Amino acid sequence: MYKILTLNNISVVGLERFPRDGYEVASDMSAPDAIILRSYKMHDMDIPGSVKAIGRAGAGTNNIPVQRMSEAGVPVFNAPGANANAVKELVVTGMLIAARNVCQAYDYVRALEGSDEEVEKQVEAGKKKYAGYELPGRTLGVIGLGAIGVKVANAAQALGMRVLGYDPSITVTNAWKLNAGVEQASSVDDLLARSDFITLHVPLIDATRDLINAERLRLVKKTTVLMNFARGGVVDEAAVEEALNAGKLASFVTDFPTNRLRCHDKVIALPHLGASTGEAEDNCAVMVADQVRDYLETGNVRNSVNFPEAQLPLSGGLWRLCIVNANVPNMVGQISGQLGEHNINIVDLLNKSRGELAYTLVDTDSQPPLEIIENLRGIKGVLTVRLLEPKDA
Ligand SMILES: NC(=O)c1ccc[n+]([C@@H]2O[C@H](COP(=O)([O-])OP(=O)(O)OC[C@H]3O[C@@H](n4cnc5c(N)ncnc54)[C@H](O)[C@@H]3O)[C@@H](O)[C@H]2O)c1
Ligand SMILES: O=C(O)[C@H](O)COP(=O)(O)O
User: What is the value of pTM for the model shown?
Assistant: First the structure.
């Protein structure tokens, strides 16, 4: 029986991927085998030593101590692309409501008083204050062309916008998905200077903290709308406030409200709604539950942010050793040497590495005795060793 601890509400459709006869799923339990979460901040959490995997039902993993987990030999999984359409739709919404002054106009109408006739008069008299502009021909700058950025860029082009993109590490797959005609900006600064709308779709990492700062805001046109659906830390809010107050930036649309800006007249602040659609919540939960289950049951790794991809089909009747070790010479030699010494036959073997970590799957046709497991655990550089029983044993 595997135990899954949830730290946020996770879509039932996803949790149902854990069969009841083999899994216990709860929001409070001791010694879990895996943790599934959304935005719960795990950095200060005392993570039990029983945890073998962490699944983020979403994209961003800045709420998870990924480095600490790597050092403990624990994979962190996420759900790449599973909520990208939801975010794309909210970004398009953000552009439209900013361009048409929808929030200000909405507030204006709600504050009206008088008879229907009087209200109508005020409506017709007041509407000129909220006249906006249309999107075709305007330029959208997209920083970060991953799962979300590519969808946003393509959608904006379909709306008749000119699109500039910047991503020095764009993957070949995402480059293929990008519509022809999306223009490559030569730098963030180049993109900022030429855009009417700027949208951020980068992870929050050291290199992207305060990516939009005072110096960079000096480059934008005073009519520009800045949108942040990435993470609060990607934008220096004090600098944004200064730019808005000085009339150097038209408006700021953010999914990450703070007290400094949430009530500012030129700010549209939403409560981290980017991925909050039923569809995205289901997609993320299903994807991550399947990946965590696969890892627990077969040791295979898909979509981890700290482990290498590792997929070795598991045939019935075989034992499988899953070994997480430092990416240093002679690990496979020492592992196979241990098995050879005990006359255990290796049927299949996979060794993959990513950065400082390596991951080895070894299939054997007889049961490796406990002594081998202990010896493997004793090899310098080995972080964890798991033995999976044959499925049909
Ligand atoms: N508002 C929400 O609810 C919501 C929902 C999903 C994701 N997000 C945030 O959006 C981020 C992106 O999500 P995604 O699914 O597109 O991730 P992704 O990994 O598919 O794409 C991120 C892209 O950013 C690029 N990048 C990294 N550093 C960069 C830099 N300095 N300059 C330009 N590009 C850079 C990467 O090369 C990658 O292509 C997530 O990490 C998360 O923080 C927010
Ligand atoms: O990174 C993400 O996937 C989003 O920020 C969504 O976060 P949530 O799952 O807490 O809505």
Answer: 0.97
